[in-house]
Write a structure and sequence with these properties.
22 helices, mainly alpha, elongated
């Protein structure tokens, strides 16, 4: 009994080990066209499309042999790359490289016709590749915009709106390929799923409403009425709960500090000015949030965050500007924080390991502000770094590195 039980377990272990090695080999070799591979991974979607299946097999063929690569480099001169599951836009880059060398690749197929057989791309295949490449182009551009240095949180929903509109246009166009139409429907479904998740936090809608180039007019033009009411109400609750009664950015400015004429004594001319001057007392019941979002959007030449950091805007909307600065300072993706984190390795070199974490954090933060243009150095005519942010070092602690 024991020997039979042991043999059963040993056989199952050997089979599992064999399949594991097969999966690792196929992954290392770029998902080669093994007949059992479709059972190991679910790639049945694009494999049913002739053009994509052929271009994938070509990319795998080039990776399976250095001889193939040498022949390809000599006749074509541009590596195709390989599609995969994790790298964004891998299919787009693969198709882009193929279209850039379309003439050379067609000649390469003629030279190695016997080796490729049924995997040679036909005229209709090239047309499908061009159509697919054109459809994927906005997604590649959206990736670059989202992770770019000038990106902000208001771009997130705007990018999703544009991509959903792109899907709707693609579905409306006449297409006779059921596989492509199915891919479009599935892509729309996934994007709509993640779009709905943005309702879990009000900051995404707040970023749109506080963007001076969008405001309420943008969502009225692009969203359904049910979405608009929910987004505005959630943002208003967020504003009233956290910012409406909070202090302005940098503290309140007293009338004495704001009055430029307070440096001299009043005279009869000032009394005459008071008699002819027309002004209207500000209504304390007017909500800055409603006033701003209902104003018409304007075209700006800088980022929304820099627009709100202007002193005139801070004076006009002392509390709303605090909310706008907080919301628009949130990075839309993790690219910038990861870059700043990686930059800490250069600051904390191998011979400065005793530098405190707080100091590293402040150095990286100030450096990022300088590179982003939020701080202008005094040698360049700016105000330099605010002295209040100087780092205090405890004299009782054994620290070798201090910041000047």
């Amino acid at each position: 009994m024991y020997e039979k039980f042991y043999e059963t377990l040993n056989t199952a272990a050997r089979e599992e080990s064999k399949q594991s090695k097969t999966r690792k080999y196929l992954c290392k070799k770029g998902k080669s066209a093994d007949p059992n591979y479709q059972r190991l991974a679910n790639f049945s979607g694009w494999r049913q499309i002739s053009a994509l299946r052929k271009i994938h097999h070509l990319a795998v063929w080039l990776r399976t042999s250095s001889i193939h690569c040498d022949q390809w480099d000599m006749k074509v001169g541009l590596r195709l790359g390989i599609d995969n599951d994790t790298r964004w836009n891998s299919w787009y880059k693969l198709l882009s490289n193929a279209l850039r060398k379309k003439a050379e690749i067609r000649q390469f197929f003629l030279d190695f016709e016997r080796e490729f057989g049924d995997n040679i791309l036909t005229i209709s295949d090239w047309e499908f590749i061009e159509k697919t490449h054109k459809f994927l182009q906005p997604f590649a551009a959206a990736t670059l915009l989202g992770e770019g240095a000038g990106s902000n949180l208001s771009h997130t929903l705007m990018i999703m709106d544009a991509l959903l509109h792109h899907y709707e246009k693609a579905k409306a166009e006449d297409t006779y390929d059921p596989h492509l139409l199915h891919c479009i429907h599935m892509g729309w479904f996934v994007l709509d799923k993640y779009y709905s998740l943005t309702d879990n936090t009000p900051v995404y809608a707040a970023a749109l409403l506080l963007d001076p180039s969008k405001r309420l007019r943008y969502i009225q033009h692009n969203w359904d009425m049910a979405w608009i009411n929910n987004a505005v109400e959630n943002t208003r609750v967020f504003w009233e709960k956290n910012y409406k009664e909070a202090g302005p950015v940098g503290g309140a400015v007293s009338p004495e500090d704001a009055d430029t004429c307070s440096r001299r004594s009043r005279n009869e001319l000032d009394d005459l000015f008071d008699e002819i001057t027309v002004w209207e007392e500000s209504d304390p019941d007017v909500d800055d949030f409603d006033t701003f979002i209902k104003s018409p959007p304007i075209r700006i030449t800088c980022s929304p965050l820099l627009w709100w950091l202007n002193q005139e805007r801070i004076k006009t909307y002392p509390r709303l500007s605090r909310m706008a600065i907080d919301v628009l300072s949130i990075p839309p993706e993790s690219t910038d924080p990861e870059s700043a984190f990686s930059g800490g390795r250069r600051t904390l070199s191998w011979d400065r390991e005793r530098m405190m974490c707080n100091n590293v954090e402040k150095v990286e933060c100030i450096g990022n502000w300088i590179r982003s243009g939020l701080i202008t150095l005094s040698i360049e005519g700016g105000n330099g770094i605010i002295l209040d942010t100087a780092i205090d070092v405890d004299a009782d602690k054994d620290v070798d590195d201090e910041l000047d």
